[in-house]
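$ run holo --ligand "adenosine-5'-diphosphate" --emit tokens
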Amino acid sequence: MQRWQREINITIGLVTPALVTAYFVGHLSTLLLAITSFLLIRQTLAINEFEKWLNRGGFGDMRHQKGIWGDIYYHLWKLKKTEKKRKKKLSRMVEQFRSSTDALPDAAVVMNRYGEIEWSNRACHKVLGLKKSDKGQRVPNLIRNPAFVQFLRSSDYSQKITIPSPVNENLTLQISIVPYGEGLRLLLAQDITQLKSVERMRTDFVANVSHELRTPLTVLKGYLETLLEMDDGNSSYSRSFQNMAEQTERMHLLIDDLLLLARLETKQRNSECVNAPELLQQLCHDTRLPIKDAGRIQLSIASDCKVQGDEQELHSAFSNLVSNALKYSPADKPVNISWQQDQQGVYFEVEDFGEGIPGAEIPRITERFYRADVKRNHKIHGTGLGLAIVKHVLARHDAKLEIHSQVGKGSRFRCHFPASRIC
Ligand code: ADP
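-- output --
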């Protein structure tokens, strides 16, 4: 206010003598015009000086002016000083962020909505082969792996993909993409080579042990069968032979399932157009089915769609679900099997009217060796690997397993294949 007072005082100091003079000699308008012109020129000169000061980037030196211009200079100088401090702090933060992301072992790339590189860290060079000079280039032009390009194009980034490193085939990378901001995407590539090799060692170990166990078990099974044939059923060993035969059979099934799982984890994917309706017909009329179960199956083929995949794997997944439905429901209840099409694709469904599965157990029953309601299951033989096999087979066919179950009413297992799999 004090500064404004000075400006007002100057104006009053000029206008008052002019009014007094005009009272005695006239020419009021000329005098007022002269005063206005003087004030205008004064302000124009001040603005000119201010503009020059700004042009010089003159914030460095503080201008000591009187009146309102002094205030303006002071405020601007203070603003600039705060801004300078903020900029310094910000650039320090950016520098810290840069050095921390450069120290990261995982590669990180920021892409804009067109897939062009906005920023990348140092690890990108080592694992993805991207250089600092690649900034502005489109990522799919630099990393040409088809699975990666397809993943980048899709808008569903809920899953991660695994690809070999474009610079070193021996490195396995797990890629994830996180969309953020306005059309920006953060690509993260993690080197999982070691994890993969441990996983491979585990699979190889299980496969080798299972394979090695199979031969002695077959010999044992053969001897037991001979003993059972020779036994008239009245000896004191009859029950023991029977038990031993049952247990060796169980072990045989367990080894078969373990070997199948190991194969699913390591085998190359085979892709042919599988006639699923025909496969289901065969499965339901399988002569190996117990006589008591054969009549319980009700098959409904509502679609003639075929699916792209591996026939043997699909057969084993479907038969696991059918045999579970037969196993875990009373012998006088039907088991409905259907093959149907919907908007998302095509699905195989098995419905039974058995005891069902408690809700809390549903997420766990596809885990290896997990058997729900152990007390009840004690009487029903199983390896606990059937649904793990189903899950693996479906994952290899881009299909999903949906499980609906109500205790006391029954269960419904649905294998949903996407439309892209129909052939
Ligand atoms: P298992 O060899 O024990 O049948 P699975 O992996 O096939 O192994 O199934 C895992 C568990 O899921 C089973 O032990 C059982 O408790 C439950 N389950 C699977 N299918 C059904 C079904 N149709 N009805 C009720 N429970 C089921």
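-- notes --
The CA atoms of residues 405 and 411 lie 4 Å apart.
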